[in-house]
């Protein structure tokens, strides 16, 4: 499967635990974006990363949330000390980063995070 | 920052009819406008996009129009089929690479 791969597809955590969401971009893509979607809502931008660099984290809460895209391996979105309000679908997208700005972003099928 | 409004929130059509979804954006610096289709339990799928140097783009039964002056863009689906039923999202992007999404339109195509 050459598409964007996210895992796990579903994740259940209790309040106060940590959640780690993983995203492998499409083959050949070096730009990764994370978005959050609440029920009946559109997607909200969280963070944009390139390999080993955070380019734009303007949509990410200042506390408890962090993201990385290491030289090797998938991008990770980490949520510490989860609260009920963190329950949402988290989507990762990737783009090639080649050529002009705003290359098409292709999405994975998301991780549905539920907080008990 | 950018704000994208999308209408209608729900749309029901008969199979074979056309469907039109409209979006407006606020930031005149936005120059990239993709449309996504999202089926239940899946991620958004890019179906068509348009850049600000083009007024219209067509791909089989799907077309998108852009009016930069009025800051609005529309998705047109002709000869709708039941498998077109899904939630459709418009989005706007500028030089920052991030996309700002509308709240979505739930399209139902009745056989």
- Distance between the ends of chain A: 32 Å
User: SS-based structural class of chain B?
Assistant: mainly beta
Principal-axes shape call of chain B: globular
Largest sheet of chain B: 6 strands, mixed
**SSE order of chain A in H/E notation?**
EEEEEEEEEEE
Please work out how many helical segments of chain A DSSP would assign. 0
Share of residues in helices of chain A: under 10%
Helix content of chain B: under 10%
Residue fraction in strands of chain A: over 45%
Query: SSE order of chain B, as H and E?
Result: EEEEEEEEEEE
The rounded distance between the terminal residues' Cα atoms of chain B is: 41 Å
Main sheet overview of chain A? 7 strands, mixed
Beta-strand residue percentage of chain B: over 45%
- Write down the overall mean pLDDT of chain A: 93
What does the model show?
The complex is a heterodimer of chains A (116) and B (111). Chain A contains no helices and eleven strands. Chain A is mainly β. In chain A, strands 2, 4, 5, 6, 9, 10 and 11 form a seven-stranded mixed β-sheet that branches. With 111 residues, chain B is mainly β. Chain B contains no helices and eleven strands. Chain B has strands spanning 4-7, 10-14, 19-25, 32-38, 45-51, 56-59, 62-67, 72-77, 86-93, 99-101, 105-110. Chain B is globular. The chains are: A mainly beta (116), B mainly beta (111). The A-B interface holds A 4, 6, 31, 33, 35, 40-45, 48, 55-56, 58-59, 91, 95, 101-102, 104-110 and B 4, 6, 31-32, 34, 36, 41-46, 49, 51, 89, 91, 93-104.
